[in-house]
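For consistency, the fold was encoded as tokens, as this record shows:
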Amino acid sequence: MGEGHVFVLQGDPAQLATDATLACPPPAEEVTQAELTDTWAQALGEAAARAARAPGHGRERALLALALPEGSVGGDRVAVLEAGLAAAARTCAGEGTPDVVVLAEQRADYAALQLLRSRAAGPVGPETRRLAELARAGRLVAFLGAGVSRAAGVPGWQELIAALARRAGLDDAECERLLGLRPWDAAEIIAGRLDVPTGEAIERELGAPGGQHSITHGLIASLRLPGVITTNWDDRYERAARVPTAGTLRVLPRDLTDGSGPWLLKLHGDLADPDSIVLTRDDSLDFDANRVPLASVLQSHMLTHHLLLLGYSLSDDSFVRLARQVRALHGARSGDGPQTPAVGTVLTLQDDPLIAELWTGTFAFVSGHGATGGQRSGDPADDRPDHDGRGEDEPPPRARHARAARALELLLDDLARLAADDAPFVLDTAYRRLLEAGRSGPLLGPLQALREAHRQVRRGAATGDVEEQPDPVADAVARLLEALGEPTTD
């Protein structure tokens, strides 16, 4: 199964679904970086031993989190970050070890962690690098399907339909037949049998909005993309994005947005508003007829941005129609489309050459199996047919499914690391060693001089010595310094 992996996220440790989360106290004044590493590695190792017995959330291996504490080692915040990464790496070293998330709540910590990792990282694939370039340019928008929330314990379509069918009073034979129908038709039958509105029944089944988010939610949220679109009803992404967006995320259509901050479009409704849920064929037809503005948002981003689709099967009729309309506008044709996909990239668990051929020129496809170069776990059983006689071209068993899902998590972690282009730690002396050790060291002196000069301008404006009027140069410098960690007040 190989070694574990060290992930980095920005978020709230209480909101991430893990097998164990280690919340560390601030380091004592006399502690050393090596002592911190040893202490945290020992605690993670003990948690790993307990979690290895039964990894949760459908993952291939256990997932632990190390929530970085506040404080520093002798005024050096970088020592805390390095200790966290080292303790996580030590825990992940070895066959069958867990994955560990180093979790930062402050953006300066997150950006510094990504810089530290990048200095020691190996090469990544061309698709990951291409997506990172799009993210850095502000042109990447994520599209999240049900598969993303399943990793956080949200029931998948089959489980939800079965639960709703039982609630509607269908017997076992009817339930089995129901699961073989098209989703819209199955939901239509259930809606006709329920004694309450479907949205209310789903809310009862799934519980009130809440619950922890998956690592995939966290990786996407840490990217701080301009927009995210989802067909999911739950609030897992909102929870993941609360810290990275500093609470500025707007949820469409229930929130208003002025376009200046990040947004989440809930295309098929919101558990917070059960009447908005799209489930049955009638709901779908109503969506096509009465929710044109929502579809327009999706199509406009198909034209102006690049969609990154995760946990989505491209089987929704409304989505397929919208994407084909965009493809027709681009003039793409199967077999002779442009080299760069016109609409987006689909991250999928397994290769499906026929589906990829169907969407040639519109979507690029990256599979979990392909993301690892086709590598196996080393178990000879992987190369044999499954116990029921299915070969490798058939739907994979649970173990292969989990392995492919984890491979996509690794790809997203590389994407997040490469896309991190902010540096809100530069003007904080606690991170000075991080800059001095890198190529940016010679910039420290000029930046400090620019900072002091800008403070003099601000003080002059405050005392009336300088006439207060719009100054684009001073405003541009202020924005630069704020992005590098300068507080808005002296």
In short: The chain has four domains: 6-105, 133-152+211-419, 157-206, 443-483.
